[in-house]
Specification:
It is found in: Membrane; Plastid. The protein is mainly alpha-helical. The chain contains six helices and two strands. Helices cover 71% and strands 3% of the residues.
Length: 238
């Protein structure tokens, strides 16, 4: 009886379903776009609160935001080294805060209370289009890093240490965004599916540890994504 109910709930779970907006002939995932803009507004609000009335001795929101910036600075410095990290802090920091905000928005905010004609509000990172876009942006960043430092000599890496490795080195540039996007997408989607099924089968108190674990996992995924992005960039620079 339990197994049949579980499979029924899995088949009826709305995680991954979308309602669409037609914008200038393009179909856009409506709830994904709404939650993305919600996260962007929250991040901008935090930035404003942290920089308004800045003082030499930070306190309150300024102290919180400086600690957050120090954290992403350490990520960039650890991966990129003293020579390169400063110019890449904005990119690495934006990646981390955006993914962190999206994951936490899906894990903390009770979006299920808002009924939609189809689908439901959830973390934007449980949509493969969002994670692929972030992964492709990372690919463009490390190509830009390599070309800006080495010019067209950057492409010598494809025939090093042996020209026979050309197909493998080219394939590597396709596997990097694939692994980045599917790792983030798979973890966030699996977490939301697990919580959706558990909250439908048992009282809310029981899934709470899983929800807390999902919040922690969302933070770790943001850290992993931004760390790997920095590692790919330094690989191109070196």
């Amino acid at each position: 009886m339990f197994d049949s109910n579980m499979f029924t709930l899995l088949s009826e779970a709305e995680v991954g379903k979308h309602f669409y907006w037609n914008l200038a002939g393009f179909l856009v995932h409506g709830q994904v776009l709404v939650v993305i803009w919600f996260v962007v507004v929250i991040l901008l609000l935090f930035s404003f609160l942290g920089t308004a009335n800045a003082e030499r001795i930070p306190h309150g929101w300024q102290n919180f935001m400086e600690a957050a910036v120090d954290f992403v600075t350490d990520i960039a410095k650890d991966q990129l080294g003293e020579s390169f990290y400063k110019e890449w802090i904005p990119f690495i920091g934006t990646l981390f805060f955006f993914i962190f905000g999206c994951n936490w928005a899906g894990a903390i905010i009770p979006w299920k209370l808002i009924e939609l004609p189809e689908g439901e509000f959830a973390a934007p990172t449980n949509d493969i289009n969002t994670t692929v876009a972030l992964a492709l942006l990372t690919s463009l960043a490390y190509f830009y890093a390599g070309l800006s430092k080495k010019g067209f000599g950057y492409f010598k890496r494809y025939i090093q240490p042996l020209p026979l490795l050309l197909p493998i080195n080219i394939l590597e540039d396709f596997t990097k965004p694939l692994s980045l996007s599917f790792r983030l997408f798979g973890n966030v989607l699996a977490d939301e599916l697990t919580i959706s099924v558990l909250t439908s089968l048992v009282p809310l108190v029981i899934p709470l540890p899983i929800m807390l674990l999902g919040i922690f996992a969302g933070s770790v995924q943001a850290l992993i994504f931004s760390t790997l992005a920095a590692a790919y960039i330094v690989e191109a620079l070196e």
